[in-house]
Amino acid sequence: MHKSIYLAIAAFAALLLTLSGCVSQDEFDDTPSGNLEALWTIIDEHYCFLDYKRQTLGVDWDEVHARYRGRINDKMNRYQLFEVLSEMLAELRDGHVNLYSPADVGRNWSWHEDYPSNFRADIQDAYLGTEYKIAAELKYRILEDNIGYVVCSTFSNAFGEGNLDEMFHYLRSTNGLILDLRDNGGGDLTYEERLAARFTDEHRLVGYISHKTGKGHNAFSEPKAQYIDPSSGVRWMKHAVVLTNRSCYSAANAFVRDIKGLPRITVVGDQTGGGGGLPFSSELPGGWAVRFSACPMFDTQMQHIEFGIEPDIYVSLSEDDAARGIDTLIEHARKLLKTK
After folding, report:
1. Which segments within the chain are labelled E, that is strand?
2. CA 334/CA 146 separation, integer angstroms
3. Do the beta carbons of residue 25 and residue 220 sit within 8 Å?
4. pLDDT tens digits for 236-282?
5. Rounded to an integer, what distance in angstroms lies between the CA atom of residue 38 and that of residue 28?
6. Can you give 65-128 as a three-state secondary structure string?
7. Neighbour count for residue 303 (Cβ, 10 Å)
């Protein structure tokens, strides 16, 4: 297990101790106003980006409280309450912040909905063809110009070290690699680190992580360094291009942080969607669950990655290319690899 995984576990252990004094359901009535107060307090005391969102987005959580409290009355039904509470959480513009009821999930997807997708699944399928290989959640083939093409659409499901060994062994004779990360909404940090470890040949600092130590908006532990160590399996030491768009989120965002800056890696496409806070969950008096970002992650310069990571080269999907079944990003990556 990588050192950063140990640190994440330690951070969560410390967070659990902090949250042992979290908002108790007994402190608030199971009424619309009681559920709003409980939700606002959970975020106020334990969400990790309140000051950062105030600085970057102008979100004043006290002002949000006053505004949404004015929309609550104890005669409203549960559907109306759910809508108001979900809208309050959406003020944070955080894809890791959700409200869960049996009927719906409150969410904010502005991190990708407000931007061009730079991706067409049907065009990606055409590049993959029908004879591609499958290693757990990874799809891969060798393109006609002897460039390896790998689609990694999620980090939610396991791919083992054996899967990666077989894939990179198969691609070993190619002239370069395209790793298509577009529309990867994230998943488990274990899997993104497992893949990132295939691209480095040294013990490498990739960033930092912290956690809340108290109820204050600035009550955080000292940042802990996160590292990636070289895999003991087959590693990719040739040039590679990683394709990104705004729908690269959470663990996919962390993967881009972990590999960006490696000497043989070029990130091409659009800025990632972000999602730089490890999520945690709590519960409202009415039984609805709330998920929120609890542990902020940073890059090596101690900059937040909550709002995404810029590519090395910005490339957008051309409408003319798309109409002809051509993926502008893939073709740019192929040209780039031919010059390496």
Report:
1. 98-100, 105-106, 133-135, 138-142, 148-152, 177-180, 204-209, 224-228, 240-244, 265-269, 277-283, 289-298, 313-314
2. 10
3. no
4. 999 999 999 999 999 999 999 999 999 999 999 999 999 999 999 99
5. 6
6. HHHHHCCCCCCCCHHHHHHHHHHHHHCCCCCCCEEECCCCEECCCHHHHCCCCCCCHHHHHHHH
7. 14
pLDDT in tens, 161-179: 999 999 999 999 999 999 9
Is the pTM higher than 0.85? The answer reads yes
Q: Which residue reads 């042992």 in tokens?
A: 20
Contact predicate 285/30, CB 8 Å: yes
Cβ-proximal residues to 336 (8 Å cutoff; 6+ apart), any chain? 241, 266, 268, 313
- Spatial contact of 78 and 213, defined as CB atoms under 8 Å apart: no
140 pairs with which residues across the strands? 133, 150
Q: How many residues in the chain?
A: 340
Nearest of 187, 177, 126, 186 to residue 150 by alpha carbon: 177
Provide the residue type at 241 as one letter: V
Helical packing angle, 189-196 and 161-170, nearest 10°? 40
State which amino acid sits at residue 275: G
> Quick check: 289 and 281 in contact, CB under 8 A?
yes
Element (H, E) at 30: none
